[in-house]
Amino acid sequence: MIKVVVDCFGGDNSPGANVSGAVAALNKNSDLYIILTGDEAAIKEQLYGREYPADRLTIIHAPEVIGCDEKPTEVIKTKRNSSMMAAIDCLRTDSAVSGMVSVGSTGALIAAATLRVGRLAGVMRPAFCPILPTMNGGVVGICDSGATVDCTPEMMKQFAVMGSIYLQSAFGVESPRVALLNVGTEAEKGDKLRKETYPLLQAEQSINFTGNMESRDLLSGKYDLVVCDAFSGNVLIKSTEGACLEMLKMLKKNIYSKPIYKLGALLQKKMFSDIKQFMNYQNYGGSVMLGTRKTVVKGHGSSNEKAVEVCIEQVVRAESARMNERISEALTQTT
Amino acid sequence: MIKVVVDCFGGDNSPGANVSGAVAALNKNSDLYIILTGDEAAIKEQLYGREYPADRLTIIHAPEVIGCDEKPTEVIKTKRNSSMMAAIDCLRTDSAVSGMVSVGSTGALIAAATLRVGRLAGVMRPAFCPILPTMNGGVVGICDSGATVDCTPEMMKQFAVMGSIYLQSAFGVESPRVALLNVGTEAEKGDKLRKETYPLLQAEQSINFTGNMESRDLLSGKYDLVVCDAFSGNVLIKSTEGACLEMLKMLKKNIYSKPIYKLGALLQKKMFSDIKQFMNYQNYGGSVMLGTRKTVVKGHGSSNEKAVEVCIEQVVRAESARMNERISEALTQTT
Question: Nearest Cβ partner of B149 from A190, A258, A265?
Answer without folding.
Answer: A190
